[in-house]
Each structure stands twice: as C-alpha cells, then as structure tokens.
Amino acid sequence: MRISTVSSRKPPGAALMAVLWLIAILGMACMAALRVISFDMEIASAKVHGSRARQIAEMGIAVGSNYMVKKTDPLLHRANPETGENFDVRIISEGGRFNINSILLQDDKPLLREIFIKWGLELEDAQNVVDAMSDWIDADDNVALNGAEKDFYDKEGRINQPFNRPFYDLSEMSLVRGMDLVEAVRPDWRDWFTIWSGGPLDLNEAPAELIAAAAEVSVENADMIPEKVRGADGERDTADDVPYQRADDALKELGIDTQSRPDIAKRFTVNDPITRIESIGIAEGAKHKITVIVRNRTGRPALLERTEETIP
What we know:
Layout: H1 12-65, E1 77-80, E2 85-93, E3 98-99, H2 100-105, H3 109-119, H4 123-137, H5 150-155, H6 179-185, E4 193-194, E5 201-202, H7 208-215, H8 219-222, H9 224-230, H10 247-253, H11 262-265, E6 268-269, E7 274-283, E8 286-295, E9 302-311
Parallel strand pairs: 3-4, 5-6
Antiparallel strand pairs: 1-2, 2-7, 7-8, 8-9
C-alpha cells in the first residue's frame, strides 16, 4: 500500500528572497563601514591640515612680531597658489579699545553707564551693571548703591565671587551680575574693551564710535579724528598719515575745553605702547588663528597674552 507524503521543502521563491535580503544586509553593512572609514580619514586629514594651518599662523606671528615690519608691509600677507597655503597678519594698537580696569579704578562710572545706555540698556539696568562691576573689582565687601557683593552671588550658588580684584581676562566680565543684559543688546561688547592697554583711549587708533562715547560728542563729529589721521589717501598706516602728537590737540578740534572738562581729557592719550598681532593661517581649507598682545613691540617686547582658536 503506497502512502502519499507532503513535501516539506520551501518553494524556490522563498530561498531567492532570503538570498536577496542577505545581499541587501551585507550591502548596507559595507556602506556603513565605508562611511566610518571615510569619516576617520576626514578626521585624520583635518588634524593634519589643522596642524599645518597652525604652523603657518605661527609663521605669521613671527613676521608680525618683527619690529622692522610695518603695518602695511606686504610681508604680512603671504599666499602660495601652488599649495593653497597662506597667512594674513594684522598689527593693531590695543589702545584703540577701552581699558575696563582703568575705567573702574578711576571710578569713571558715567562713561560706562552712557556706553551701556547707547547700546540699548535702560538707565536703571545700566546703573546696576556698572555698580556691580565696581563691586567686583574693589577689595571690600561693601555693596554699592546698585551693586552686588558676596551675599548676592552666594544666593546664586556662586561661591568665592566676586573676585575683589581687577579683571585678569575679558571673559571674567561675563560673570558680573547683569552682564547677560549687555550681551543681549551688544553681543560684540568684547571688541570695545581690553585689560592690556596703557589706560586711556588712543585717539590715533580708536574708531569714531568709541571716541564719541568718551568725548561725549556725536559719532559724526568724532569721525573727523580718524579721518584726519588717515591723511589725504583715506588709508591707515600709509606715508601721508597725520597722527596726533598730543591728545589735547584732537580734543580741541572736537570743541572740548580740557581745562573745564578734565574728566573727559583724562580718558584720552596718543601712541599707546601695547600692540595686538593677529595671524590667520590657512592650509587646505583649515584655518587657525593666533593672537598675541605685546608691550613695546619696537623696543624690548614683552608678551602679555597669547590665544589660539580654530576658525570654522
């Protein structure tokens, strides 16, 4: 007697589908592996090019630090079309910015208050920030009228603040109560300040906006100072520049009587000895920036600060 049996074999179509699925999975695994390898290669390449960009920026700093190199010297801008490597160097006076420690130590609160108000702060907020800055750098724990001392920062969970000393770095200004308001209305506030200049604002180097704030005149009126310094060709650091030899001469042209306004006169100087040298090195698309601040670049230079950053 013949007993019929049912075959347990899978149809050919199912096996084909299994093979196709396996091929698809292997393909995706290969693509993922290739992406990982490509990513690792990009990271390695970026490190190599980033390191080279840093070396090129260092070369720029070496050139800019040479006292014989002038601000307009072509040596400050080097490009190699064959390799795509180049550096650009800027030599700038640090006296073109407000020295925040000098302002606070001289108790020139009106200047800071007016700067913050012109930036968009309300009068009360500006007074609060200025007094809090004064409390931050003074050596005591006495709270100014609108200031903030240890008790305030303790309540905020910030121990050992304020530091009760002058700012050692501009980033410390961000720790002062109310500076978040300043940041909101003027994100580039750091471009206005320094801790390294000789103190007063250098009339030969400062832009019209800063001169206007310190001299209490309009920006349009203050613009006559940098315009005269630039000379007939309208370019800085050229042969026809006409820098001021005395701050009083520039203030006189602004219509300021230095005898009756000594508070304004003390805010200005000329020929500040502190120099900022900025060098950007580029290699295969990678950019690296080195900034050094030196005292007495043309004599016996002393390094005050050095910072580095990778530029996207």
